[in-house]
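Project outcomes to date are best conveyed with an example. Our students and postdoctoral researchers have been running inverse folding experiments weekly, and each run begins with a structure described purely in tokens. The record below, which covers 177 residues, was selected by the lab manager from last quarter's runs and is presented without edits.
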């Protein structure tokens, strides 16, 4: 009589696991493409290349959509096995699928899972760096605009008595408004 583990292995078909691995590979590629765009975006931020930043934002959004779609497909695939093999306990992650796979697939899934985790950590770090750089760039622009407006709003005029009258510092923006 086959053991419980052998039953699970026989129910979890090789073709299903291979397709699952393929979906994870697509997901990892999508997240790596996103990471690449974020890293390029960092240099565009440093160079203050607004046009390139805008283009990269569009590309980044497309990469995010691809990654979300890949994640959703992987999750749907997990749901299939959950309904078939473990209807009483819902599977939610690669980690939960690994113990019910044949050893040859378990090793590959472990590797892909770690690759996915590492890529997601790099995305998070790169995103934080980009956020910081954008904040600092905005602070720099704001300070420069304040200086420009302060100087542009200052006017020195001579009064009727020949003495210089200084007016208050008023920004150009408030003159326009």
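After processing, the design step wrote out the following sequence:
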């Amino acid at each position: 009589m086959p053991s419980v583990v052998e039953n699970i292995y026989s129910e979890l078909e090789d073709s299903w696991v291979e397709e699952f691995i393929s979906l994870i590979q697509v997901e990892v590629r999508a997240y790596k493409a996103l990471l690449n765009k974020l890293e390029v975006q960092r240099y565009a931020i440093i160079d203050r290349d607004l046009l390139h930043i805008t283009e990269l934002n569009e590309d980044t959004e497309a990469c995010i959509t691809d990654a979300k779609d890949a994640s959703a497909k992987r999750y749907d695939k997990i749901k299939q096995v959950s309904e078939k093999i473990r209807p009483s306990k819902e599977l939610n992650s690669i980690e939960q699928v690994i113990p019910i796979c044949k050893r040859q697939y378990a090793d590959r899934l472990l590797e892909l899972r770690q690759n996915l985790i590492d890529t997601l950590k790099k995305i998070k770090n790169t995103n934080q760096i980009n956020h910081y750089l954008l904040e600092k760039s905005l602070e720099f622009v704001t300070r420069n605009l304040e200086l420009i407006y302060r100087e542009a709003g200052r006017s020195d005029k001579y009064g009727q008595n020949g003495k210089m009258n200084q007016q208050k510092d008023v920004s150009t923006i408030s003159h326009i408004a």
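The longest helix spans residues 103-153. The longest strand covers residues 156-158. The training component of this project remains on track.
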